[in-house]
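Hello again, I could really use a second opinion on something today. My current little project is about how a certain protein chain folds up. You're getting the sequence in one-letter code plus the fold written as tokens. Here's the protein in full, and shout if anything looks odd to you:
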Amino acid sequence: MDTPHGSGDIADLMSILIILLLVATGVALITRRLRIPYVSGLVLAGLFITELLPRRVGLDSSLILNLFLPILIFEAAINTDISRLRSTIKPIACLAGPGIILAAGITASLLKISLGYAWIPALFAGVILAITDTVSVIAVFKEVPVPSRLSTIVEGESLFNDGVALVLFNLIATVHLTGTFTPIGGLQQLFMVIAGGVLLGAGTGYLSIGLFRQSDDPLSDILLSVAVALGTFQVGQLVGVSGAVAVVVAGLVIGNLGLSRNASATAKVTLLSFWEYAGFGVNTFIFLLIGLEVNLITLWQTLPYVLMAIAIYQIGRALSVYPLLAILRFVDRPIPLRWQHVLFLGNVKGSLSMALALSIPSSVPGRENIVALVFGTVLLSLLGQALSLPWLVKRLKLSKPSSHLQQVETLQLQLIVSKAAQDELDNLLKSGVLPKAVHEELRATYQARIASSERTLRDLYNARSGMPSSSKLNAIRRQMLLAEKSAVTEALRKRILSEELVQAYVSDLNRQLLEIEEE
């Protein structure tokens, strides 16, 4: 029996989805083993799996701007502590406001001079190449310890950077279509669009708090949060204000006022876990699609121009970061020079740059050249800058581990190797390779090392009982709580325990998990 044409399309889409999921899983395993950034691995994989897919797929600018971008912005905003953001608001506002305008202007001017672009194409390219994608930087921060204030500045800049860039892009598109521009009019429009986005986001955020208060179902809260994230962006686009800024503000309001004051621990853990998975999934597909979208032949043909563009946008970033932060030190706590190096070196490009390149009006002269240039710079940025970033951040030695932490890690090493050696001795005894007398003598030696390490570790933890737990100890506590949660959930599934008892216990576990996350 013949299958409808639509059924064949659905079958192809399902095949593509399954292949991409399997590739992403393989990339996750390989990059963890090789200790390279996950996003770089995804881009590399995307370059070489085109032939495995039943048909060609690529980036859709509308999908990225209207679905993926609101999800990523809302996920970052809902997890941001507004008190931390408030303490670093001056450098964040400086980098995400004047910083991106200055970087875009310098980049556009240099592109016009070096590549001969007209002003409108140069300005489009300048704004697109001024956008920073902090996924790679944040991933490095999870591996290399950095001061929390620096991490907050990077995360905060990324929150507002995308919104300001979208406003500038739309402003340039308006100038291109109307053919008129005045500096005062442009600044007024910029202010109105951003201020309107702030008001819209605050309004939708506060309205949704009342709905969260009425709901005691975590799954309903998830649906509501998705509706707020996507709906706020669309309403912003409809009324002519910044949808991206509106989503940021709505996420901050919900995360810091709605969840912290009204939601139960179970609801909060469920909601934050959902958005963590959503952000991870969206990033996974985006970076795979970036690899699929780039044509290596076109990249090779445009490589000299791509390398020139990379040098130009790095100059623009340097001339916006270092001078602005030098001026800022007169009105705020100075940002150490090494931190400024991270803000400069973390100037990695990503999916929003490619989506905006595809969104350039077709009437713009040289549009195809700009698209090819942006695609090439994004690819080399993700493979060059993102891969070298962990090494560079380590070389800067932003935070030195304390002597206490080094002592704890040394003792943990002694425990791990000694217990592994004991396990191997037991295996040799069971297999008959090792005589029992020799086994007991060697095992006693390792047991003495274990006992000594455990005693010293206990004394260290007791001596610091009044101080905050280390991140590694928190990770161990979190792992144990998750193991407990899994055990009681499994007992409920097998009808060993009553649902009422399990829900009460899981609620308490969720409360403890939240306390660990907030430390």
Notes: Residues 1-5 have pLDDT under 50 and may be disordered.
